[in-house]
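Before the break, one more example. Copy the sequence into your notebook; we will annotate it together after we see the structure.
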Amino acid sequence: MALQEEFEQQGNFLFKYRGSLPIFILILGFAVYAFLRMETPTLFTAGFYNQPFEFIALGVSFFGLAIRIFTVGHTPKNTSGRNTKAQVAETVNTSGIYSCVRHPLYLGNFFMWLGIGMLTRSVWFNVSFILFYWIYYERIMFAEEQFLRKKFGEAYTNWAAKTPAFIPSFKNWKAPIEKFSFKKVIKKEKNGLLAIFLVFYLFELIGQYIDNKTFWINETYWLYSLIVMAVLYLILKILKHSTKVFEEEGR
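Here is what the structure looks like once it is written out:
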């Protein structure tokens, strides 16, 4: 098999399982965090890596989520989705953030995961994560671009020729064609918001167990934040399935 076809095959496989395979990295991150917390506890209580560092990490994850929100909020139906069964695209997005970078959702994912990786306080873990992310998503992006190239031809290749794949360039900025849709963002990105607080709280629980040898639930800001996000998520989920409040034509 030629390398081009091999990359495309690998990318389609990783695309199909892109929602579950990164869980391995999360579990590894928990293990690294637990090991460092036991071996060098001062790493989590002193200097630059003390508790406020967690808020810096949260800010990085929020930055990634904001990229996703801006992207999803300005795109039409059947583009920039979370589908995993097959590639889907009814048009080539070329305005808004897509005038600056070809894969903004994966750029957003990178920062969301990087913020989580920072909680380990391990430079080597984060360097390894970046390398893994590069190899992992490079294949997925290659497969997606092959699909778009075959479906849209010159309309895609002309846009791709002047738009970076992953590192944005704002010299060709074009205002978004679609108006921002809060309803679409709520439908598509509520999972990501809840996931951030859930993962951050799981790190908190692991740290508490290592320090106190118990999973006693302390009343911390992470717990309260998770409860608020969980209640909000359930409300939005119920509204989505029981009403048409989030339905929009063409979005």
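Residues 117 and 126 are 6 Å apart (CA to CA). Residues 3-184 form one domain. Try to locate both features in your own notes.
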